Amino acid sequence: MEWEVVIGLETHAQLQTKTKIFSGASTAFGSEPNTQACEVSIALPGVLPVLNKEAVNCAIKFGLAVNAEITPRSVFARKNYFYPDLPKGYQISQYELPVVGKGAVTIQVPAVGKNAAYEKVVNITRAHLEEDAGKSVHGAVEGMSGIDLNRAGTPLLEIVTEPDMRSAAEAVAYAKKLHELVQWIGICDGNMQEGSFRCDVNVSVRPKGTEKLGTRREIKNLNSFKFMQQAIEFETRWQIETLEDGGKIQQATVLFNPDTGETRAMRSKEEANDYRYFPDPDLLPLEITEADKARVRALMPELPEAMKARFESEYGLTSYDAATLTASRDVANYFVDAVNAGADAKPAANWVMGAISAKLNVEEKSITESPLNAAQLASLLKRIADNTISNNAAKQVFEAMWAGEGEVDTIIEAKGLKQVSDTGAIEAIIDEVLAANAAMVEEFKAGKEKAFNALVGQAMKASKGKANPAQVNEMLKKKLGA
Amino acid sequence: MINSSLKTLSQMLAKKEVSSVELTQAFLNRINTFNPEINAYIALDQDRTLAQAKAADVRITAGNAEPLTGIPIAQKDIFCANGWKTTCGSKMLANFVAPYDAQVITKFDAAGAVNLGKTNMDEFAMGSSNETSYFGGVKNPWDFTRVPGGSSGGSAAAVAARLCAAASGTDTGGSIRQPASLCGLTGLKPTYGVVSRYGMIAFASSLDQAGPMAKSAEDCALMMNVMAGFDERDSTSLNREKEDYARDLNKPLQGLRVGLPKEFFAEGLDANVGKVIEAAIAEYKKLGAEIVEISLPNTGLSIPVYYVLAPAEASSNLSRYDGVRYGHRAAEYTDLMDMYCKSRAEGFGAEVKRRILIGTYVLSAGYYDAYYLKAQQIRRLIAQDFEEAFKHCDVIMGPAAPSTAFKAGEKVDDPVAMYLQDIYTISTNLAGLPGMSVPAGFSTGDDGKALPVGLQIIGNYFDEARMLNVAHQYQQVTDWHTRMPDLPTPQGTK
Predict the structure, then answer these.
(1) Do B235 and A89 touch (CB under 8 A)?
(2) How far is B100 from chain A (nearest CA, A)?
(3) Do B322 and A284 touch (CB under 8 A)?
């Protein structure tokens, strides 16, 4: 039997607000335990939540970015359960009426093996605001568990998709797209190691061609895309094998072990909590007006799709190049900065996607950490455009600039890479080459086209690579009467 | 002096006829004499109290006193007060010292009032007799064998016994008005959202509201001027312009339309209490009021609705008392679940547990729609009853409680009988309306003891100033509110 995997994602994006979602305590990461836990974070008797408007703005931004319905009147609800890192004994979340309703994102699924790359729309079911819990710290004091409430009350946007994805590659493409989007619109720093962007993946399998969804298992807290890919692949195989062996899938939460590459059930959902959701009487319903949306929209950066279209029309880039550059806001910004600093768009795009991207990959750096900034790239490209250096020489200059040896002109000077464009000098070299290679000249005159290229090569060699190749070509043609 | 109005005390302080320290000491002396018997206070801190009194005297001398500067006020032990033990009447918080101030405490401090101590109360404000307090019951100053009502029983007894000049209370289903009625005081539960709930330990968040308990309507007005006001730390606090609650005290009542809901005078009302209320209504007629028959048809549903919604919210509000961060933790336990279970089993009393169980049940999957949602729908109907009624009248009057103070122990084993104590008060909490209880006379029981009866006045939203006017005018022609119980001399003193 042929099987089909069905995948949906729930992503917790930590919102980039200065203070917590329901109090004035700081959200900064990595402080000493409980130093950022105010009376509200600790849930002292009598404290009350007050909604942070910045968190709401983040939710609106996200809703606008995925063309979603933004709920005019959403409601905060209490999710009741006991856990030591949950100070109130309930989490303030949204249940029946989330702030963001149905939306969609378009993902680019890369080519794998003989399968070509393709585009796909993933539907967003909802996104809601909620507070994060604290952390349990084990072993700080021997034999005891400690509670750190610094994170308690940090704002989260939980983004839920429809079960629209049909492979690990699609799920990872969606997660990467979402990861980039939340950073693009400035609502989340995307730091997966610090837990700012956490994905839970729901996986089920069913016989291909059937409609009914299989029983799902939820893979929790995957903190890298690589692990996500591995976990889904393992989980899919495991479910198919289990069913083929005549077994049944039990609904469960599973954890991925990066060391073994396996998923394993954490707890059975059968004994799941009854969370006793009800509207939080301490908070008024969250009302968002058209004016609120307009105000946030005005603060929004240009979205990736719009920017891609603009790169095509304004800079004449191909759809592929425009999509590649706008896959990351930092990359797009770098490109635009280079163009604004005087670089021609097409070569700038080629360099960003080519040499620079390759170097960054090798050095495992992001473009914001690039040793060569956009203005420096533009200065290099200008020297190619104005014929000061050849493309070949440019590669050497680029390497030197990357290594921090100086600015473009200094390096050209120091390395003596300046292209010879002086007609007299080039003519002298060509004359010498023609004199020394009479046989080749004869061959050319006899109709051997290849001899011409050999003569160009000789001339370039004689100039130590510095002669302007176009000029050499032209003058040689003239001399040979070709 | 201990029987003087807040206004008189304020004038005496201003004229230096008495200092705040002297006044405070006078009340502390009475507390030392009578509190061991009455048990109105849970926490006292004489040094801290006198330090506040000294500071008030400095402020008075400096000439920037406010009306309550230097006046000793008792605070219900439901308000967090920085450095004070704040127990909410529970073993769970028996050793909890609040590290911050409730907004109500902040406001009294800013006004220069002196905090005399924290008053006894039903555990987590759940009760109508003060008998659920972990710190023991409170005696009604009018008859030590009887309860003062609840949950603000300590505050009520403290004011009635003149162990403070006035007190704060809170009212979720009648916890200011019923004890005010049973102790012969004037008590006001404001419109929901008028007084900040920040730092007031939550019982049922959508119903809880703090207010004054005092000797007269005028005193309540002065207390309200301090307590009321928008607070950005309470999202349900209403951002309204500051008002002077005493501004209308002296308006004549000619033409006032008083609505009498027939449901408040039906079966269940003690006949003697009914007579006292009728006499009070007759007095209002003399003052020029016009009586209008009205109906609040859903009154009978208010108790069942309340005992779904209030426990639902309470079950969640009380989840934070888990033994992890503060409060009672069992001495021995095997694992986390055991620690939770033991700590909560030991820390909460029977009535609190009963309500947590009810609340957990009504919010559970499969029951939520039938209980919680249905109750919310009826809550709206109850509010609509009042909306309709206020088309025909300016204020609504009736009894505040169905009987006078009952004997200690009489209802502790019958929760439903206890819950019926709030039959006339609960509907205003459900609607969010303001209500008050005003001393209207006395009813003599089988044992020949005269016990106070409270007249309830219910106003429309934000009509507190008018209600205080209505009460004040009555207090100009009657003296029930000035009556004071004869306290038996405690044993061991002369």
Answers:
(1) no
(2) 8
(3) no
Contact list, B206 vs chain A (CB under 8 Å): 281
Domain count within chain B:
1
What's the CA gap between B158 and B165, in Å, rounded?
9
Which secondary structure element, helix H or strand E, spans residue A122, and what is its range?
A: strand A118-131
| Closest CA relative to residue A22, chosen from A49, A46, A43 | A49
Which alpha helices (DSSP H) does A416-449 contain, by range? 423-436, 438-445
Count the neighbouring beta carbons within 10 Å of the beta carbon of residue A30: 6
**DSSP assignment string, A294-356:** HHHHHHPPPPHHHHHHHHHHHH---HHHHHHHTTSHHHHHHHHHHHHTT--HHHHHHHIIIII
Instruction: Return the minimum-mean-pLDDT range out of A301-310, B115-124, B350-359.
Output: A301-310
Which of B168, B175, B196, B343 is an active site residue?
B175
Put simply, the answer to whether A46 touches B198 (Cβ < 8 Å) is: yes
Residue at B124 is within a domain: yes
**Residue B45's domain spans which residues?**
6-256
Give the domain CATH number at B204: 3.90.1300.10
Half-sphere exposure of A459 (CA within 13 A, CB side): 28
Distance CA A190, CA A192 (A): 6
Where exactly are the structural domains of chain A? 3-291, 302-415, 423-480
Within its chain, how far is the Cα of A226 from the centroid?
A: 14
pLDDT score of A269 more than 60? no
Chain A residues with CB within 8 Å of chain B CB = 39, 42-51, 78, 80, 82, 84, 87-90, 147, 274, 276-278, 281-284
How many A×B Cβ pairs under 8 Å? 95
User: What kind and span of H or E run contains A178?
Assistant: helix A168-184
Residue B20 appears among annotated catalytic residues = no
State phi, psi for A85 to the nearest 5 degrees: -90, 5
The chain A residue lying nearest B233, using CA atoms, is: A50
Q: Is residue B481 part of a domain?
A: no
> Is A281–B320 a contact, with Cβ atoms under 8 angstroms apart?
no
Report the helix count and the strand count for chain B, using DSSP H and E.
15, 11
**3-state class (DSSP) for residue A127:** strand
Q: Is the pTM of this model over 0.80?
A: yes
Residue B290's SS3 state is: strand
Written as six digits, the tokens of B479 are 């003296």
Alpha carbon of B127: minimum distance to chain A alpha carbons (Å): 19
B20-38 vs B6-14: helix axis angle to the nearest 10? 140
> Do residues A76 and A284 touch, judged by C-beta distance below 8 A?
no
Q: Name the more confident of A455 and A48.
A: A48
What fold characterizes domain A423-480? Answer: Arc Repressor Mutant, subunit A (1.10.10)
pLDDT in tens, A413-469: 888 888 877 788 888 888 888 888 888 888 888 888 888 888 888 888 888 778 888
For residue B220, being part of any structural domain is answered with yes
B201·A47 Cβ contact <8 A: no
Which chain A residues touch B88 with a CB distance below 8 Å?
Answer: 45
The verdict on residue B206 lying in a domain is yes
Give me the mean pLDDT over the A392-401 stretch: 91
pLDDT bracket for residue A482 (50, 70, 90): low
Whole-angstrom CA distances from B266 to B174, B269, B423 are 19, 6, 11
Least CB–CB distance from B235: residue in A51, A147, A276: A51
Predicted confidence band of residue A271 (pLDDT cuts 50, 70, 90)? low
Which of B5, B20, B76, B152 is labelled catalytic? B76
Name which of A5-14, A103-112, B382-391 the model is least confident about: A103-112
Structure tokens at B20: 């705040």
Quote the ipTM score.
0.96
How sure is the predictor about A244, in pLDDT bands with cuts at 50, 70 and 90? very high
The token duo for A4 is 């089909």
B77 in Cβ contact with B89 (< 8 Å): yes
